[in-house]
Amino acid sequence: MRLQLVEDEAERLVGGMKRMVRQGIGASRLRRMLPPRLGGVESSAGMMQRLLLLREFNYEPDIMSTPDWLWGHDHAAREELYDAMVEEYEVEARIDAVNQQLDYAQATAQQLKEDAQHRHSMFIEMTIVLLIAFEVVVEMHALGYIGWLPTAAAAPAAHAAAGGGDVVQAQARGVKKRTSAQ
Q: For residue 37, is it within any domain?
């Protein structure tokens, strides 16, 4: 009975892993934050936790080994009955099948984790590249190599060059006289 529960949980886990692979790759942030009952996608952290807890059945003495009450000379008939039940219900083959499903789920979860880490590192690298490019453009502008906005000193000269009148030219000469007098 206990093995059947483990098998059912392993099937639910593998089914959830398949849904996460199908939906989780393109899921929005909102769907990833919602619980699965409300239409969200189950997180890989929760899936890994369930997977690790499910793996603990391999250490359960009631499932994996002959029970203690069968040991002894006077319980030979019970031990034969137990061995026949293990063979009839294919307990060892079922345990191997559950372990194989769990291996698949663990490998898939590990791959999803590595993909998420790769996407995150690519995002950080692209952010760094864009920040460096922005810094280079700002420095080139500060050094005067790029002039996309007219500066305050260049505006009167540009206006005068365009035929802006005597007032602007007089203001520009007044600035030059004040700077040369100092």
A: yes
Q: Could you give the C-alpha distances from 90 to 3, 36, 76, 98, 147, in angstroms and in order?
A: 11, 34, 21, 12, 80
pTM exceeds 0.70: no
Domain that holds residue 177: 150-182
Domain count, the chain: 2
Digitized pLDDT (tens) for each residue of the chain, 182 residues in all: 577 888 888 888 888 788 777 765 555 666 666 666 666 656 666 777 777 777 777 777 666 677 777 676 677 787 788 888 888 888 889 889 988 988 888 888 888 888 888 989 999 999 999 999 999 999 999 998 887 755 555 555 555 555 555 554 555 555 454 444 45
98 located within any domain: yes
Domain match, 154 and 111 both: no
Residue 121 domain-assigned (yes or no): no
